[in-house]
Amino acid sequence: MVERNLWITNPDAFVSIVNRDVFDRVQKLIKGRGAPPERPDAYFIQGMRRLLDREGKLTQRLLKRKRIFAHTYYKRFGSALRAYELAGYVPPPTTVKLVHTQRQIKLLRNDLYIRLKQLFSDHLRFISLPGQQLRRIVEIDGRLRVAVYLCRAVNNTKTGEPGWLLRVRPPERNLPALICTLDQSFSQLLNFYVFPPFGGTPRKYKQFREGHPWLSTGRKLGKLDDFCDIVKEVASQSENRELYIAVDDILIGVDTWTIILGKKEIALGPVGSGILNMMALNAGKAISRDRLRRSVSETLLDPHNLNSHIHTLRVKLGEEARKRIQTVPGVGYMYVSPDKNEESGWKVSSQWHV
């Protein structure tokens, strides 16, 4: 990346739309409306100390509820424990152990993803479902998605034997799952199992042990090299829901903001995906601008924003596919299938205009 002071610029390269003085004043106003100035570490440390004096303890939930700072601010101190230390708080041993366990599991998860990527570099990638910022699932060959669970060791199973705890994440219930069991010290992964989609059971938590009957509903992997083959077998035997809806030659992701057109995957984003879904699933029918705005946002979008999103959608679809998004004057927009582009009974305007 070239540093800004090395750029060659020409402020008068294009004809100005607005007067330079007006532009400079607006830029100054915009800058004044930006984020508040960055607060120093001492500000947050002092806030934690005041809260500690009132509550007698510090927790991440308490700090967030009292609006001292959110979890993202822990990075500036290195960790939550380091932040507590600077504020003069010594957390109980159970908290220290929990933080250490979470750190170890995170490292093991990253190592697992690296191993999978090395084994199946041409067939596998990691994606996040909508609403999941910190979690990733596995996608095989662009079609088959698999949830990944690292189950920590527990000692309080009903029989008193050592076992593991599974916490099911609701957005991933309808996906096949890779279950990985950890050793007692959280230093290594012991065994790998592939399960069909959980559906409604278990509800949220599941404790199991080696030899538990529940494990027989999955497939144990002899080695991680068998992951892709076993997942495909398990998925083919289960009633897994479709991940894509096919409209002509477009595959529309059910729970992501992407489509597959030909062999190319295109990320549309939440608004572009909502607009295309509404039109494609009503192919040949004119969709009003008001209906489109309501379909992609809880609040009505400004008409000019809708124009911009339509333009961006057409650009992403490419030179040929953009012709499918037609403007119906006085009504809105319509998706026209490729084979009916010339036969449509609607009087539509050129796709090059919004």
What can you see in these coordinates?
With 354 residues, the protein is of the alpha+beta class. Helices cover 34% and strands 19% of the residues. The chain contains 10 helices and 15 strands. Strands 1, 2, 3, 4, 5, 6, 7 and 8 form an 8-stranded mixed sheet that branches. The radius of gyration is 27 Å and the shape is flat. The relative contact order is 0.06. Residues 343-354 have low confidence and may be disordered.
Named at the architecture level, the CATH assignment of the largest domain is: 3-Layer(aba) Sandwich
CATH topology assignment of the largest domain = Trna Endonuclease, Chain: A, domain 1
Global mean pLDDT: 82
Major sheet characteristics: 8 strands, mixed
Helix content: 25-40%
Q: Counting H and I runs of at least 4 residues, what is the number of helices?
A: 10
What is the molecular shape? flat
Helix-strand sequence: HHHHHHEEEEEEEEHEEEEHEHHEE
Topology, pairings included?
Blueprint: H1 20-32, H2 41-55, H3 60-65, H4 74-77, H5 80-86, H6 93-119, E1 124-127, E2 137-140, E3 144-154, E4 163-167, E5 177-182, E6 189-195, E7 205-208, E8 219-220, H7 227-237, E9 244-247, E10 250-253, E11 258-261, E12 264-267, H8 269-280, E13 287-288, H9 289-296, H10 303-321, E14 325-328, E15 332-335
Parallel strand pairs: 3-5
Antiparallel strand pairs: 1-2, 2-3, 3-4, 4-7, 5-6, 6-8, 9-10, 10-11, 11-12, 13-15, 14-15
Helix pairs in contact: 8-9, 8-10
